[in-house]
Amino acid sequence: MKNTRLQLMIFGILGLLSIPLIAMQVTTEVNWSAGDFLIMGTLLLTVILLIEFVLQKITDTKSRIGIVALVLVLFLLIWAELAVGIFNSPFAGS
């Protein structure tokens, strides 16, 4: 296993996506469609792959921290926009 960190991250994505899947079985408050799972899975996978790329290619610790922080902030902004439409963009879904 050459890259176990990436494998752990992918299993983490599957674990995170299983939370709304299980919640949909228990309550009617969570109502995700297949498209929701696809979009969130793609978003999480993109973030994980970007972070993995940064960790492999960038050697300076301060640069690593800065770039990973930027990726995470962008992820959180996109996630918030998709969830509640904080910027009222056309792809917000609200």
Summarize the structure.
The chain crosses the membrane at residues 7-25, 37-55, 67-87. With 94 residues, the chain is mainly alpha-helical.
Could you describe the 3D structure shown?
With 94 residues, the chain is mainly alpha-helical. The protein has one domain. 76% of the residues lie in helices and 0% in strands. The chain has 3 helices and no strands. The chain has helices at residues 4-26, 34-57, 61-84. The chain is flat and about 45 Å long. It starts with a helix and ends in a 10-residue tail after the last helix. The mean pLDDT is 90.
What helical percentage do the residues reach? over 70%
Oligomer: single chain
Termini, distance in Å? 43 Å
Main beta sheet, described?
none
Helix and strand content put the structural class at mainly alpha
Keywords: Membrane, Transmembrane, Transmembrane helix
Transmembrane segments: 7-25, 37-55, 67-87
